[in-house]
Amino acid sequence: MKIAVLKNEENSHLFAIQKESKFYACSSIPTLTDAFRLTLAEFREQVESSTGHEVNGELVAPITPEIELWGAGVTYLRSRDARKEESGVPDVYQRVYEADRPELFYKGNARRTRGTNTPIGIRYDSAASVPEPEVAIFINRFREIIGYSICNDVTARSMEGENPLYLSQAKMYVGSAALGPYMLPSWLIPVPAETTIAAKIIRDDKSIWDASTSLASLNRSLSDLVDYLFRCQEFPDGVILSTGTGIVPPLEIALAQGDIVEITVAGIGTLSNSVIKIPESP
Ligand code: DO4
Ligand code: MG
């Protein structure tokens, strides 16, 4: 069983329970925002006892206009090494990898986030852009993790490499985030070593790069990331945190218009997005 967000004529962000390729409404949870306002125990009880009718609609990213999307960075050894390789100031990445305080950044909102099978963007003014295949955690207003999904933290790599202060421009632009296809309730996630994350870039029907890791290689605990994210912050409607990438392509691989990026996380599914170039005035 997984959680989906559907768009149809009555509701642009309908909360739906997916079971055996059918979708069912949950009368006490009309939208995903309502799920974030429940405690984890209430959410689980209402989902497990739901007897809602079958619903249909277009599968969209599991996020609503009230929910923010944030990112964590340099949380895997591979990410630390890749940043050091691409950056003119490698020391900042080494230091944040070892520090108690993690790197956290605002990544976007529903309007900026693509669902599966919709295009992600690469900036026209970045020489190289890469996918960042990540596990996203869904955190309710009570700081409890209610679910897991897949996030592609698409990044203008050469822009960030030129100067870390360009991070916001490298991370946040039209089409720079993809999320989905589903949210797996947190009580169903496999143990970290079995939560494998695999990614590939397909060009002209051929894979030009693939790699994998697992959540067990994350260098920080999820509770630590949640703790820092909520410091001096309020998320009355919950928040989604993409927990950082453990898979980074080598420097000679960069996304191009027409590529397809597939990210598969065990237990959740596959997030698939084609790539388009974002012009100066989209
Ligand atoms: O430091 C820049 C961002 C790193 C990041 O997004 C990641 O490690 O996933
Ligand atoms: Mg990232």
Characterize the structure shown.
Strand 1 and strand 2 form a beta hairpin. The protein is of the alpha+beta class and 282 residues long. It folds into 2 domains: 59 residues, no CATH class; 211 residues, Fumarylacetoacetase-like, C-terminal domain (Fumarylacetoacetate hydrolase, domain 2). Helix 3 runs antiparallel to helix 4. The protein is globular. The longest helix has 10 residues. Helix content is 18%, strand content 37%. The chain has a 7-stranded mixed sheet. The protein has a 5-stranded antiparallel sheet with strand order 4-3-2-1-5, with no helix packed on it. The structure holds 2,5-dioxopentanoic acid (DO4) and magnesium ion (MG). The site of magnesium ion (MG) has 7 residues, from strand 6 and strand 15. The site of magnesium ion has 7 residues, from strand 6 and strand 15.
